[in-house]
Amino acid sequence: MLEIIAFDADDTLWHSETYYAEAQARFVEILSPYGETSEQALAVLHRVEIENLPYFGYGFKGFTLSMVQAALSITAGAVRGEHIQELIDLGKTMSGHAVLLLDGVHETVAQLARHHPLMLITKGDLLDQERKISDSGLGDYFQYIEIVSDKTPASYQRLFQRHDINPARFLMIGNSLRSDIAPVLSLGGYAVHVPYHLTWAHEALTDLPAADGRFFQLESITDLPRLIGKIEKEGASGNEERK
Amino acid sequence: MLEIIAFDADDTLWHSETYYAEAQARFVEILSPYGETSEQALAVLHRVEIENLPYFGYGFKGFTLSMVQAALSITAGAVRGEHIQELIDLGKTMSGHAVLLLDGVHETVAQLARHHPLMLITKGDLLDQERKISDSGLGDYFQYIEIVSDKTPASYQRLFQRHDINPARFLMIGNSLRSDIAPVLSLGGYAVHVPYHLTWAHEALTDLPAADGRFFQLESITDLPRLIGKIEKEGASGNEERK
Questions:
Q1: A132 contacts in B (CB within 8 Å)?
Q2: What confidence category does residue B237 fall into, taking pLDDT thresholds of 50, 70 and 90?
Q3: CB–CB of B57 and A125 under 8 A?
Q4: Which of B56, B138, B169, B228 has CA 20 to 30 A from B6's CA?
Q5: What's residue A239's pLDDT?
Q6: Which residue of A55, A81, A147 is in closest CB contact with B72?
Q7: pLDDT value, residue B206
Q8: DSSP labels for chain B?
């Protein structure tokens, strides 16, 4: 009954936000001698990140540029050169961070791939995402890999058209209500939210579109095969009017 | 006879390197009060760019980060905050630059699209390339649009596999010998070099693989339909042993 099962990558299959959190913690340390509180420094960084999204998009390169800009802003331009270099070096470290799969991901993906075509839909920097997919060892389980610049209803719509997907037979798993869940529900697909222990404020969301039983939340990705079995059984029995 | 005609984008369909050259000229101006010559400043920038490719890949975001790092390096960390902010702002300006088609591009692409499936193969930042494709007004002429992180033989090979392309019936047009021409020739495809008036040193190349009559150079993209007609005619008469 489900034609495609699609996965977000960062913070759904492997750890990502932890590396941003580590970089932010170091950012705060670097800026602390200049007199702002941690909260003030992080607030400026977050504001600059959001302001820069239209220019730099998602991913660690835009984040690194935003750290530099925020450091200049917080210190009124007085941040020392060595500290700016350290921010750039933090970005380089992020580009090579270890790809650590979340618990149970490998087994779950391998199990689902036996019966369903899987798709990976991830946003961010192209080279960085390719590197992580390769390092994850999961690439071969996915029939389709889509790296997109943003995850809006329009970008999912384009994927549906390109791959001739019926949204009513499409299921997306991800940690971001804004990027993985809301757009898919609004197009009539199934969406499974598996929260990560950290969420970038930008990815939080208060209102979800009407879901009509197509929205689920799981504590762990390992519960996914059972949920999918249930959805497909009920879909089938629903079609057959529960004989 | 040709199944796919593929185009590079930056400096093949529209101006791009001019914007990098403008940013570099401003970079040199900004750094000039610090005592290095233009040549020295540009040499450092170029070295930093190449060193940073494994971390940041191609595109204006990595270029912007490299400008900041080069400025720190040239001034031993003493570059003023306002100047670093100006380098970041240069990057933002690049993200929104006008997409100016090269002479004759629109007519040539429109003409070729009537008889051949066209593919766009471009490398760089994802969001930036999508924006330029959209602003160019050329998107609808291309049956396939591929944004890749690098253009190596392996990346072309992946495209050939994904789209089931026979390289012997594939023709690529581009301005970069390193990225558009050499890898395609090495895989047995046709390649047409249309030089742009500026070439990033990294894209230059001294040795081309053996081409066996599959390599062409044109002064203008407008000569392409005639060349393709000739290739297809000779290919056809070759197959029919010139009856």
A1: none
A2: low
A3: yes
A4: B56
A5: 45
A6: A81
A7: 67
A8: ---EEEE--BTTTB--HHHHHHHHHHHHHHHGGGT--HHHHHHHHHHHHHHHHHHH-SSHHHHHHHHHHHHHHHTTT---HHHHHHHHHHHHHHHT----BPTTHHHHHHHHHTTS-EEEEEES-HHHHHHHHHHHT-GGG-SEEEEES---HHHHHHHHHHTT--GGGEEEEES-IIIIIHHHHHTT-EEEE---S---GGG--S-----TT-EEE-S-GGGHHHHHHHHHHHHHHHHTT--
Give the pTM.
0.89
User: What is the amino acid identity at position B75?
Assistant: T
Is residue A29 predicted with pLDDT exceeding 50?
A: yes
pLDDT in tens, A19-28: 999 999 999 9
Q: Token pair of B122, please?
A: 């471009």
Residue B119 has pLDDT above 90, yes or no: yes
Alpha carbon of B29: minimum distance to chain A alpha carbons (Å): 19
The answer to whether B67 and B27 are in contact (CB under 8 A) is yes
CA distance B162 to chain A (A): 10
Nearest CA in chain B to A57: B127
Mean pLDDT of A197-206: 75
* Per-residue pLDDT, A240: 39
Is A81 part of the contact surface with chain B (CB cutoff 8 Å)? yes
Q: What is the pLDDT of residues B122-180, one digit of tens each?
A: 998 899 999 999 999 999 999 999 999 999 999 999 999 999 999 999 999 999 999 99
Output the DSSP codes for B110-161. Answer: HHHHTTS-EEEEEES-HHHHHHHHHHHT-GGG-SEEEEES---HHHHHHHHH
**Residues A164-173 pLDDT 10s:** 999 999 999 9
The minimal CB distance from B126 to the residues A52, A84, A126 is found for A126
Q: How far apart are CA A201 and CA B237, in angstroms?
A: 64
- Nearest-Cα distance to chain B for A61, in Å, is 6
Best A48, A125, A148, A159 member to test B by mutation, with max B CBs in 10 Å, is A125
Q: B168 and chain A: CB distance < 8 Å anywhere?
A: no
ipTM of the predicted assembly exceeds 0.90: no
> Nearest residue of B to residue A80 by CA position?
B77
Helix (H, G, I), strand (E, B) or coil at A34: helix
Chain B hits for A81, Cβ within 8 Å: 72, 75-79
